[in-house]
């Protein structure tokens, strides 16, 4: 199955309309395989089926099977990527909403954090998130806009825009009442449905410049 899939990908490069493929093997029957292929539309799926390369791989697949493979056309009625939802809950309910009690539910106890603003390359523990959120919420009245999210494997990449009003001490500077904004990217890695590691990249210098911590 892996050989056939790799061969099909190579032969249909630049021609196929498929966007996502998953091949699964039945744990209770090792000879039973299920392949799910995603297309932007039914019409494009039909275009893909007409490719001679698709027909060739299908014939090879039939040769591997004890009987004729069965096909089912499915319309997506719900598409829920749970890790993406969990990542979004951090930004909306914890960071903006201030629900620190939710941290222990969403983050692993041994959570590892990588943040460009910190001297230590890696900090460990869910309390790191609580302390960071508390500090930012004290210094700023802010909000997040989720610009985009991409999920692959056990990782979720979130591109966001942050906007806040400087309301308390930030990097030694008393409240100025100035508004500020920055963009950033956060990558969360998941284990058993909880966030186990995070990487933060954001334009901290822009915030420092806008509130007057540094002059440019």
Automatic annotation (TrEMBL):
Source organism superkingdom: Bacteria
InterPro entries from the UniProt entry: Cyclase_SnoaL-like, NTF2-like_dom_sf
The name this protein goes by in its record: Steroid delta-isomerase-like uncharacterized protein
């Amino acid at each position: 199955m892996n050989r056939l899939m790799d061969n099909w990908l190579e032969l249909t490069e630049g021609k196929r309309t498929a966007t996502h493929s998953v091949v699964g093997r039945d744990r209770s029957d090792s000879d039973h395989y299920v392949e799910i292929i995603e297309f932007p539309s039914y019409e494009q799926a039909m275009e893909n089926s007409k490719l001679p390369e698709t027909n060739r791989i299908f014939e090879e697949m039939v040769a591997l099977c004890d009987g004729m493979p069965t096909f089912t056309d499915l319309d997506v009625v719900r598409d829920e990527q749970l890790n993406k939802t969990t990542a979004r809950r951090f930004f909306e309910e914890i960071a903006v909403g201030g629900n620190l009690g939710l941290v222990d539910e969403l983050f692993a106890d041994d959570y590892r954090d990588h943040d460009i603003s910190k001297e230590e390359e890696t900090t460990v523990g869910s309390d790191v998130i609580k302390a960071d959120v508390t500090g930012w919420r004290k210094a700023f009245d802010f909000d997040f806009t989720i610009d985009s999210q991409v999920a692959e494997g056990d990782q979720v990449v979130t591109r966001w825009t942050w906007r806040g009003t400087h309301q308390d001490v930030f990097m030694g500077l008393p409240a100025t009442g100035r508004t500020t904004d920055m963009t950033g990217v956060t990558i969360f890695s998941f284990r058993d449905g909880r966030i186990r590691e995070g990487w933060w990249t954001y334009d901290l210098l822009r915030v420092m410049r806008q509130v007057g911590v540094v002059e440019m």
